[in-house]
Design goal:
- This protein is an all-alpha fold and about 525 residues long.
- It has a single domain, classed as Amino acid/polyamine transporter I.
- The protein has 15 helices and no strands.
- α5 packs antiparallel against α11 and α7 packs across α14.
- It is globular, with a radius of gyration of 31 Å.
Length: about 525
């Protein structure tokens, strides 16, 4: 019994041990299976879902810009069709004389759909162009500051507000030929300079490519792209300046494709080199080292921004002239003097809200959404809603778009998408970001996002005199307090390289403040 009992006790002791050992084996097998499954899941997640590399930024930039570029091209096409429809109807009635009259978007809506549509189009379009001009003026001050920081950005805004006011002397878009060509050349140089300079500079130490870490940042960036491809608020005025406006249909698409060759390489290269630092710098030029090539890019963008200010402001000049009854006046001086009050609120708003990036986002979500996406799509559907209007249409939708049915489907998608994503989520994100900027920097910010200057040395009365020291023969001469090479481009301190020859050439031949900036 004792023996038997002892044997039973040993067996009873070994049984739990065996079960525990088997359990460990089973648990180990399950752990290995879970780890294998988890590894596959993480690899799939990393491949399809979770990413923050420079390649992810490239994909996001390219897909968003292509998508909104196509949407913008479609609605620009709709605006051109509605313009041709309106003008053809007026000319058939023989009640129109457009020799001294520039047709505008709100007049197209008025002639096709009535005064309520006119009022909505006028309100959104004028407000958008007003803040679009404000953005160009802010860009002028932002760019020139990175060449000469002796004056703060607010003071530069005063200077370039006066410079941009000279656009009142440009009568219409007929007179922008040389300016448009120069603006395109300048933009091309700056975009490719940023791409090449970023690649040559290489990645900064500890660069991170986390992308938008919050949903607010994602939709803020998306609405910036919405604004970028919403430049066809002046489509009607540009078409009216053409001798054959029927040829405009594909122009905006071709222009968009060219712009993509500028924005995608420069955006991808800058983000690859500087990563998340771009989140706190509205002007990417601020991150590139000062060289003659960078100074040239800044100067060219100033001139380009002056041209862009004129493009955005000229339709406002037309509206104001029509309001006060001077649109048909033949005297350029009278029209220029009458246009000056339009510049004053633009100047004032640029001083109050010097937030370049946040204003871009807010304008894109709240104004561009309706001005150049939702209203044109809705107007096209309502104008051609009846079978008779579709039968007598000056131009029908292309076959590759599905004819009238396809056009209605595309228009419905544009309205729904931009209303929900652009105006809804984008509006929430842009307003949130804008309020944060106001809370951080305040209104009338003297120098928005300016790098801190070194603290001045204490007065000499509180410092012991330095010991006498013989001057070394190789020591460079002390820098003078003021060098008269020009107000805009002062020399750097002695150890730094001298200003570029191009800048000196620019100063010798251009004594007045030059203009503008392009937000990249």
């Amino acid at each position: 019994m004792a023996a038997g009992g002892g044997g039973g006790g040993i067996a009873d002791e070994k049984a739990p041990a065996a079960e525990a050992f088997g359990g460990h084996l089973e648990a180990a097998e399950m752990t290995e299976a879970e780890e294998e499954h988890s590894g596959v899941k993480s690899r799939l997640s990393g491949l399809l879902w979770h990413g923050g590399s420079a390649y992810d930024a490239w994909f996001s930039c390219a897909s968003n810009q292509l998508f909104y570029g196509l949407l913008g091209s479609w609605t620009a096409y709709l605006i051109s069709i509605l313009y041709l429809e309106y003008r053809t109807r007026r000319e058939r009635e023989k009640a129109a004389d457009f020799r001294n009259h520039v047709i505008q978007w709100f007049e197209v809506l008025d002639g096709l759909l009535g005064r309520h549509w006119r009022n909505a189009g006028l309100a959104f379009n004028c407000t958008f162009l007003l803040f679009g001009s404000v953005i160009q003026l802010i860009g002028c001050a932002s760019n020139i500051y990175y060449v000469n920081d002796r004056l703060d950005k607010r003071t530069w805004t005063y200077v370039f507000g006066a410079c941009c006011a000279t656009t009142v002397f440009i009568p219409s878009f007929h007179n922008y030929r040389v300016w448009s060509f120069l603006g395109l050349v300048m933009t091309t140089y700056t975009a490719w300079y940023m791409a090449v300079a970023s690649l040559v500079h290489g990645q900064v130490e500890g660069v991170q490519h986390s992308g938008p870490t919050r949903i607010v940042l994602y939709f803020t960036g998306a609405t910036n792209i919405l604004y970028t491809f919403g430049g066809h608020a002046v489509t009607v005025e540009i078409m009216h300046a053409m001798w054959r406006p029927q040829k405009f249909k594909a122009i905006y698409l071709l222009a968009t494709l060219y712009v993509l060759t500028l924005t995608l390489p420069s955006a991808a290269a800058s983000y690859w080199a500087f990563g998340d630092e771009l989140l706190t710098h509205s002007n990417a030029l601020a991150l590139l080292p000062r060289t003659p090539f960078r100074d040239a890019a800044v100067v060219l963008m100033l001139i380009h921004q002056f041209i862009t200010f004129g493009f955005a402001c000229t339709p406002l000049y037309f509206v104001w002239e029509k309001l006060i009854g001077l649109h048909d006046c033949r005297s350029l001086c009278k029209r220029a003097a009458a246009r000056l009050p339009v510049v004053v609120p633009i100047w004032f708003l640029a001083i109050i809200f010097p937030f370049f990036g946040p204003i871009n986002s807010a304008v894109g979500s709240l104004l561009v959404s309706f001005t150049v996406y939702i209203i044109p799509a809705l107007a096209h559907m309502v104008t051609f809603r009846s079978p008779q209007s579709r039968e007598n249409a000056v131009e029908r939708p292309p076959r590759f778009a599905g004819g009238w049915t396809g056009a209605y489907v595309i228009n419905s998608f544009v309205v729904a998408w931009v209303l929900v994503v652009g105006f809804g989520f984008g509006g929430w994100a842009s307003i949130t970001n804008f309020v944060q900027q106001v809370n951080t920097f305040g209104l009338f910010a003297k120098c928005y996002q300016c790098p801190p200057h070194l603290t001045a040395a204490p007065p000499a009365a509180f410092m012991p005199p330095p010991p006498p020291m013989a001057a070394a023969p190789s020591m460079p001469p002390a820098a003078t307090a003021f060098n008269a090479t020009g107000l805009f481009f002062p020399p750097l301190p002695a150890p730094a390289p001298a200003p570029s020859p191009m800048i000196n050439f620019f100063l010798r031949h251009h004594h007045r403040g030059h203009h503008g900036r392009h937000g990249l």
